[in-house]
Design brief:
Blueprint: E1 2-6, H1 13-26, E2 30-33, H2 44-53, E3 57-58, H3 62-66, H4 77-85, H5 88-95, E4 100-103, E5 106-109, E6 122-125, E7 128-131, H6 134-141, E8 148-150, E9 158-161, E10 167-170, E11 178-181, E12 187-190, E13 196-203, E14 207-214, H7 218-227, H8 231-239
Parallel strand pairs: 1-2, 2-3, 5-8, 8-10
Antiparallel strand pairs: 1-13, 4-5, 6-7, 9-10, 11-12, 13-14
Helix pairs in contact: 7-8
Length: about 250
């Protein structure tokens, strides 16, 4: 089976179009979106419409869940923008996506098997998001088993082989290559490049993984973020890095 997996579009319609064009050329057997579809200062409504129009499977991210709120009160800035730019049907569609996907040795979820906000493959060190080792990742998985485990949430592309033979893949982010998280502990996540990311996985007697980084018009996306009052997003979209906290 050939699988394309992507995550964390965050309302970046231009980046999503670019990876879907590439995926169409690859003609995989299955395409899975790992969630966080619309939250961000870009094109949430257009992004949801495109995701609904293509023949792919989805799991729900933490921001998709948040957008099911009856009102935007208490939501963060990116979620509030998306909530106000989505109609009730789109918000309900996002909220009602399944939290996990299981199929023939494949297990997909947004962040961790039991939480859509807890990093699986990463840990915070010196206010930066870095990679956890294989033993730590295995301990977080507990008794969960599967040949291929796919997660997103951190926006960092990664491939990890565990001692039991399982392979864990994070495809990175389609539409948000860096962010500054002010929650406890505060940290930044930086992919280091503005490209839209996804992964091509071939499941046969062994598992082969190709991380893809696709160019698109990130300058146009950055201008949209700037116009919507988010210079932090504009910087991240152009560079794949987060702005210094003092900026």
């Amino acid at each position: 089976m050939r699988l394309c997996v992507f995550s964390d579009v965050h309302g970046n319609h231009l980046a999503l179009e670019a990876i879907l064009e590439e995926i169409e050329r690859l003609k995989p057997d299955l395409v899975v979106n790992l969630g966080d579809c619309a939250s961000g200062p870009l094109w949430p409504a257009e992004t949801v419409r495109l995701l609904q129009a293509v023949d792919i499977l989805h799991v729900r991210g933490n921001h998709d869940r948040a957008l099911g709120a009856p009102a935007p009160d208490g939501l963060g800035t990116s979620d509030t923008f998306a909530w106000r730019n989505l109609d009730a049907e789109a918000r309900r569609w996002l909220h009602d996506l399944p939290p996990t996907l299981l199929r023939d040795g494949l297990h997909c979820f947004h962040a961790s098997p039991d939480s859509d906000t807890t990093y699986l493959m990463e840990e915070v060190r010196d206010q930066r998001l870095g990679f956890a080792d294989a033993a730590t990742v295995a301990s977080r998985l507990g008794t969960l088993r599967g040949r291929l485990l796919c997660c997103g949430h951190s926006h960092l592309p990664r491939l990890l082989a565990l001692a039991d033979g399982a392979v864990v893949v994070n495809p990175g982010s389609v539409g948000c290559p860096a962010y500054d998280d002010r929650s406890d502990p505060p940290h930044v996540s930086e992919s280091g490049a503005p490209h839209a990311r996804f992964a091509l996985v071939t499941m046969a007697s062994t598992i082969a993984v190709e991380h893809r980084a696709v160019p698109y018009d990130w300058e146009k996306a950055a201008r949209m973020a700037q116009a919507n009052g988010r210079p932090d997003w504009a910087h991240a979209l152009r560079t794949g890095t987060a702005r210094p906290r003092s900026a």
